[in-house]
Amino acid sequence: MSLLRPGYSPDAELLIEAGGYYLRPPIMSDFKSWAGLREESRSFLKPWEPLWPSDDLTKTGFRRRLRRYARDRKEGRSLSFLLFSARTDQILGGLTLSNIRRGVSQTATLGYWMGQRYAGKGHMSAAVAMILPFCFDVLHLHRVEAACLPTNTPSIRLLENAGFHKEGYARNYLLINGSWQDHLLFACLAEDHAARPQKVAPSVEGILKEFL
Prior knowledge:
nine-stranded mixed β-sheet, 9 strands, 6 helices
């Protein structure tokens, strides 16, 4: 497998690829495509996300975002990815492993977003199927958590189909679209994942040493 994707930079370091898709950290040259997809998907994404900063879709805002990603990555706290079609190299959405905890926890929180024009076509299901082997086999996590609004039926279905189990209901759990909102809590354990038939075998290049 080659890392020489259009726009690839050594700064990205990490590439996960399987089934016609690849995940890698965002870089500055992604700005135009990323901002365009987010802007056209604004009304679609708004009900499920925190309020966007006023300059979120500017180069300055994107540069600030990349600095935060790099800092969190260096400190071993989170990993942020963009999802691409391997055939077209088009950005489809994004995925984040945040709140990475080691010690007796070995846990991370999974979050994701999808451009409106690509939603409902199985792209994010493929991305989650790619990231879980990375979480358990490369990062050696024991548990991956996720939360979604009780009204977000597509996300609930995605998580359940990926092998997550519903574990609880958290009141006023996250500040979404400007208000505190209840969430359903899900988790996938390493043993849950190991018991499932694996449909994809992701290739991973450029493993980050601070996460191992």
